[in-house]
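User: Sequence for Peptidase below. Tokens please.
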Amino acid sequence: MSLLDTLHRWTGGLIGLLLALMGLSGTILLHENSWIALPHANDPLRGDLPTVVAATERLMAMPGAQGIIYADERFGLHQLRFGKQAGAYAAQSGDIVTRWASQWERPELWIFDFHHHLFAGDNGEWVIGIAGLCGLFFIVTGVILWWRTRRTFRPRLLPKRMSRPSILWHHRDLGILAAPLLLLSVVTGTMMIFQPFAAIVIAPFGPVAETAKALEPPRYKGGPLAAKPDYAAMLTEARRRFPDAEFRILSLPRGAGDPIMLRMRQQAEWLPNGRSTLWFDAETGKLLGARDALAMPPGAQVFNMAYPVHSAKVGGLPWRLVMSVSGLSLTMLGSFAVWTFWFRRPKAAKWRVKAAALASA
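Assistant: Structure tokens for Peptidase:
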């Protein structure tokens, strides 16, 4: 048990600050639609085909446009993507509301990049994945260590005083209260980053190979991107295939011969951007293939639920508040763990005096 206590303290001391920042940034992102103060951000969704077609043709005709994240019921603006970090928000009529040349001009974008990539792309994802595994170890060992002192449990929102003993007692008791929510946050977050961990979680729901194949995008090849793609025909065909689905993401080809991709969200899907996908020939606009997210195997369905649960895209305000408690608890636990480990450690002299007294006794 002494070894477990040592590992727990060192894990908190070394990774606590990163976990605290993950909790804080995640909590801010949970409520981003409430603090993005832009005109038309709260407009009701206009998802009828003529309106979406008109906005798509207008926005995609802009030089450098590479794709659209369409407005939804929570956020009334389309997000237009240009090269690298440039982009724009547009009303559902197609009128540009604001533009940016770098993600640093939009706080919701750079906070998202930090929370998901640590500003380091794929390398940052690896770091976050490792931090998630450490967080999982931190939660499990914390529960085991708490069990020894469970009779002295005293729930407190904040430490009774800012002394090391009080902070440690608060850390222990807050940790056990928040453990179920922290476990859910860490598991779902790590699933999205770390594929081996995701495979372990979804394994009980079906063969991992079957799930991976269902989630992997098919390889379609077509002609070069047309000068004026027929977006009206593509969106019309998509609506015919999935009549009750919302248009979510339109992406132009990344390489020569790649198709145009359109993602939609059916009403039964939890994933905010959906996983029902259609691929069109970039030259002719002909449908190359379609995937129904609701027909995916159970393992893929479970994986698709990880993000909406983690980011509180389901459950409305009550679930956002629940996940906010999880994020703020992680922030408090991580920051206090670092502070007590590095800046409030007992002085060596006191430990020597205590050891000598015990020896003489």
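The two ends are 24 Å apart (CA to CA).
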